Amino acid sequence: MSMSNTQLPPASSHNPELRGRVLVVAGSDSSGGADGLAKTQSRGLEADQKVLAAHGCYAMTATTALTAQNTLGVDDIYHIPADFVKEQIDAVFKDIKPDVIKTGMLASAETIAMVARAFGSYDVNRLVLDPVMVATTGKQLLPSEAVHDLRELLLPQTFIVTPNIPEAMQLLTLPGKEPPEIRNVDDLEELGRSLLQLGPEWVLVKGGHTPFKADGTVAQTDEEKELVYDVLVSADSVTRIKGAYQKSKNTHGTGCSLASAVAANLSMGLHPIQAVKAACAYIEAAIRFAPGYGEGNGPLNHFHSMYTLPFAPDRFVDYLLDRPDVAPVWHKFVNHPFVLAMGSGELPQESFKNYLIQDYLYLVHFARANALASYKAKSMEDIAAGAKIVTHINTEMSLHLDYCASFGISKEQIEATEEHQACTAYTRYVLDVGMSSDWLALQVALAPCLLGYGAIGQALHDEKNLATKREGNTYYKWICNYVAEDYVEAVEELVKIFIHGTKMEIGFWEMFPSA
Ligand SMILES: Cc1ncc(COP(=O)(O)O)c(N)n1
């Protein structure tokens, strides 16, 4: 086994966030039908797009044929006129130019000729060609006469061709030449090398159809099936990718999906050897986690390694507060009679005085907890965010002191006051979460205060809120404090921290290969 040292420039140097744009030229597969996380369609364009989406790539399509098929077989094929296939390719190239092209079912000799001409005119140099000929369920998807055109017109333009063993044999079946026999892994390599002669830069022979025994020879019985080999060859390298044989009926579309995963990885700038290895690992897991739908050979799970957050970016707080388990308790907090009485100005002054003192004592510990968050943070960004909130708390406390002074209560008197049990319980709970859990848990424990006061301030301050008394309301200055820019900024900071923390959680999982 040797590794090629060829370093290719990244295919996509445009926007690292968008991981490459891939044009798929293939047939559509009606099977499955349902959309969703696990109910993935198995083959054709639909599978290709799901693989690309799962890799974070941008997929475009040129449809060559529509098929009526399910997990049991292909009932019918409707060919899209070759001219129209070309129009689709032209439209894509005129606008969002693809980094990589992947072809699947090309359906007819006419379409192959048209596609080959189009690729020639656009100087395509990253073509992943999956030479789809016969469906696993048996139907001929490309007339056998057209195999000649595939070989002559497209293989010379191909970067990586990805045949399974029967397809490789058909491509090599030339008049007067016997295709090689597969007895062991060396023969797979030989098959790949023979295909290289037809023009592609790389050949990936997919060995899934021919499982091997542990000793590297072809298995003769089901019991002997232990290993599968995919073999990648180029002019100066051979890479064998060994996998455990998986006894599964859910293997349909593995060919399409593997080639699409290779295309996705190439579009992100991976070297072909890495691109193929990663794609094989992805497919192995897609089979392992297949949902098992259908009567026949069922679909894969293309999204096995993706996890999704139940909210759009920047929408965590909306999501949280709308949840049925959060909404009632949140409503009770922000619409508490104490709050409403502040808005209307009817709150007894004695209550407000006591609240101010307790809130001052609370804020001392709230500042400590934020300082602890800074201590627990791992990046300067998060340390600074914690420090910023501490500074804000300090400003907020001067408002408490001003109010108290106007009531004749000094700072010394505030600090000498005994904490209420509710204040002790709440502040020490937050600090305990901070001490015993991680930074993110601490942020969540801190969130109700910051978010709640922001929400309360906004609701009471809102011009449309007729219950709020603005003139002659002792507490109105208090309300205004929580819509002031620095407070709103502190809330925004918290949301950013939470999103950042969520991303760090994602990063943590990403340390470990999930496929
Ligand atoms: C539209 C379309 N494209 C490709 C295949 C091959 O996939 P499989 O080998 O799983 O039948 C297919 N059956 N249908």
Automatic annotation (TrEMBL):
Residues 324-500 form the Thiaminase-2/PQQC domain. It comes from the Eukaryota. PANTHER family: HYDROXYMETHYLPYRIMIDINE_PHOSPHOMETHYLPYRIMIDINE KINASE THI20-RELATED (PTHR20858:SF17), PHOSPHOMETHYLPYRIMIDINE KINASE (PTHR20858). This is Phosphomethylpyrimidine kinase. Residues 44-301 form the Pyridoxamine kinase/Phosphomethylpyrimidine kinase domain. Pfam families: Phos_pyr_kin, TENA_THI-4.
